[in-house]
Amino acid sequence: MTPPFSRVLVANRGEIAVRIIRAAHEMGMQAVAVYSDADATAAHVRVADAAVRLGPAAAAESYLRIDAIVAAALESGAQAVHPGYGFLSERATFARAVEDAGLTFVGPSSATIAALGDKLAARRLAHSVGVPHVPGTLEPAPVDRPEQLAAVLAAGSSVGFPLLVKAAAGGGGRGMRRVVAADELPAALVAGSREAAATFGDGAVYLEREIIPARHIEVQLLGDATGQVVALGERDCSTQRRHQKLIEEAPAPGLGETARRRLHEMAIRLGTAAGLSNAATVEFLYDQDGSFWFLEVNARLQVEHPVTELVAGLDIVQEQFRLAGGAPLSARALAAADRAARPGSHAMELRISAEDPARFFAPAPGRISRWVMPAGPGVRIDTALEAGDRIPPEYDPLICKLIVHAADRAEVLGRLRRALDEIEIGGVQTTLPFHRAMLAEPGFAGATGLSTTWVDSHWDGATSRATAVRAALLAAGLAELGETAPDAPTDIPDATLPGAARRPVTAPGRAGNISAWRTAGRVGATDRWPA
Amino acid sequence: MIAGPSGEAGAPAGRDDPRALRIGVAPVTRLDGDPSLSLAPAPDPATRLPQDGVAGPGLPLVDGAPTNVRLERFGEVRARLVEIVGDGSTGPAARTDLLLGPVRIDRAHGTRVREVVVGGWRIEVEVELERRAVLRERARRGAGAVVLGGPVEVRAIIPGRVVAISVAAGDAVEAGQQILVVEAMKMQNELRAPREGAVERIGVAVGDTIEVGDLLVVIH
Q1: Which residues of chain A have a CB within 8 Å of the CB of B160?
Q2: Which residue of A lies nearest to B51 if distances are taken between CA atoms?
Q3: For chain A, which end, N or C, has fewer CB atoms within 10 Å of the first or last residue's CB respectively?
Q4: Residue A175 touches chain B, beta carbons under 8 Å
Q5: In what order do the strands lie in the sheet with B21-25?
Q6: What is the CATH code for A135-209?
Q7: Which chain A residue lies closest to B23 (C-alpha atoms)?
Q8: Under CATH, which number does the domain A7-106 receive?
Q9: Residues with Cβ < 8 Å from B196, sequence gap 6 or more?
């Protein structure tokens, strides 16, 4: 099959740039990378066929420079530009600049991005086609005009507290502020607007009612140039921390076929009204009464797209390239859409980030000293890192996506637990302790406690860390004694230990997030390899 | 605090051993409530294990008490801590898989620091000789009397860039009041005063790039 393009430019970095370059190579296309000075030796530069420097490390001087990226595409002879997620992926001005340069933007058209990527415009669009949206304002809040203060407060009280200040250009929780009382609203608007302006270059913010408890469920859409839009299925991304997704899965647990069809139909109605082509995701909140509330559209590839790929059985990035080349929706995409309301398997993704889960998930950049990734059946790792790499503080702290696929959710959880046991990362603090604890959490494992606010109200990182600290102290001390005093007593064969013979095979004996296999099954292995 | 009475009169057995170690969490990563403990080799290598009567090597002393704990090494990095509570008849050994990083020398504190990763938690462990730790504690207690209520140094716990400073030298601050905003990995992190007082000095300016441990503000 002839590839849609011969050479494409990937306007991103990190794992998503590598993932897109892989898709391009599999289709027989050459890939051009772009990079900042912080990424001169990064994986996406190494695996690409050519690479163009954009500028210094700061995103505003590199990955956010529309002129430099379009120039790089023209100079390198690329015919298409894939934006990935984040950075410029949802900037209509970027898509337009690519189109104006005579290149193909791999994503919705600049007009669709303007209509959907602006959260306020998307809310108005949902309103016009009868898709229920989260209650709130439909116009930007007048942040810089003190004389409008009374009007802002009136709008706030009509929406109701607690409410959220959100960035019209936002995503991933950036520019967002939670406001519980009217007197906090003006400061929250200014702070949210400042962060939005710094992150997106657009300080427009609006008000939205906070619906809690709620689950976050989103629908993956594909559309072609003829105007046909299909849903590949939905994802549950309820496990979030301050509106940053931590775990995503497909399909959403507990939804019946009827609810699933209703949800997919609403997303398709919205995408069709927006003239969607290529790929986009429609996000909803799912409240306790079983109602879906439209949240926003991400007119781009999502971080969590792999879980849909695994369940739907296709490569979304490759579909994006074909659609961008002008092809109609593929037979494979149409077949996947037909099956979307009756999914036949399950997939889950853990976003592993360089963040400290004992310190409110504060970023923890640094250099990776050890990097061992899991393997085996049903395990997919999307990453751009390896041992020795530095995680730059300038960019997103995501370091690796662990995605597993299995017949059903229970098998997925078992597979994830064993994959987490295999991961070894040293040199930086990661979110791994959080993910291990989450998989042991009954409300998560049983899918009965899924809620967008669960992590913020329940996660106790300091307590989880305290048990690890004692083990770390003992291990470091014993290692030191062993090195300085060769006769130190660290070599007691298991069989000589009292109680060894009576040890029950199924006893948990340790924290619940460690499988019984680990606590009991490796006794024999231990005996074969004395210290 | 797992440690018993500190090494003054009546110190638990084992701390007189010149090889005895004091182990704690290194200052940069220390959280409130992090314990430290002392560890010494078994004083009598021929100690018998209880109950089964089998002669075996003695047990190391943790905070002065014999503790049935050992470390299995699987090469340079992988290791497993095996700990048996009581005489082992009440349950299986606790087995904790962990990663041991290389030791680096912290010249500023005169200690050896090793990264240990346990269940995904990355903990920088500081190891020093027990005798030296006791001397250092005495010195600190002596100095403590002088600087009681003295200045508090607020240092960076994450690297990033200072985007806003909300106070000036001489300002009075309350505990919990925002002092400055650090942007790291696209997130704006608000840094708050650890206690009330007056701002004595600000060590950074808006736009500065900071590293972990950099002095940000001194509160008097």
Answers
A1: 363, 393
A2: A498
A3: N
A4: no
A5: B65-66, B61-62, B36-40, B21-25, B121-129, B111-118, B94-106, B78-83, B69-74
A6: 3.30.1490.20
A7: A473
A8: 3.40.50.20
A9: B172, B173, B174, B175
pLDDT tens for the 531 residues of chain A, in order: 799 999 999 999 999 999 999 999 999 999 999 999 999 999 999 999 999 999 999 999 999 999 999 999 999 999 999 999 999 998 899 999 999 999 999 999 999 998 887 889 899 999 999 999 999 999 898 887 778 888 888 989 999 999 999 998 876 678 899 999 999 999 999 999 999 998 878 889 999 999 989 999 999 999 999 999 999 999 999 999 888 899 999 999 999 999 999 999 999 999 999 999 999 999 999 999 999 999 999 999 999 999 999 999 999 999 999 999 999 999 999 999 999 999 999 999 999 999 999 988 999 989 999 999 999 999 999 999 999 999 999 999 999 999 999 999 999 999 999 999 999 999 999 999 999 999 999 999 999 889 998 898 889 998 889 989 999 999 999 999 876 433 333 333 343 333 333 333 333 333 333 333 333 333 333 333 333
Which part of chain A has CATH 3.30.1490.20? Answer: 135-209
List the single residue in A424, A468, A487 with the smallest CB-CB distance to B121. Answer: A468
Taking CB atoms and an 8 Å cut-off, how many pairs form between chains A and B? Answer: 251
Q: Which CATH number fits domain A214-459: 3.90.1150.10, 3.30.470.20, 3.60.110.10, 3.40.1650.10?
A: 3.30.470.20
Residue with tokens 């809620």: A451
Q: Can you list the alpha helix ranges (DSSP code H) found in B61-215? A: 130-147
Q: Where does chain A hold its CATH 3.30.470.20 domain(s)?
A: 214-459
Does the beta carbon of B18 lie under 8 angstroms from any beta carbon of chain A? no
**Dihedral (CA of B160, A92, A220, A323) sign:** negative
How many whole angstroms from its chain centre is CA A461? Answer: 21
Contacts of B101 in chain A (CB under 8 A): 369-370, 426-427
- Of A504, A496, A498, residue with least CA distance to A520: A504
Determine, for residues A468 and B119 on separate chains, whether the beta-carbon distance falls below 8 Å: yes
> A478 CA to chain B: closest CA distance, Å?
6
Class of domain B152-219 (CATH, top level): mainly beta
A47 touches A40 (CB < 8 A): no
Domain locations in chain B as residue ranges = 21-147, 152-219
Token pair, residue B99, equals: 């990663």
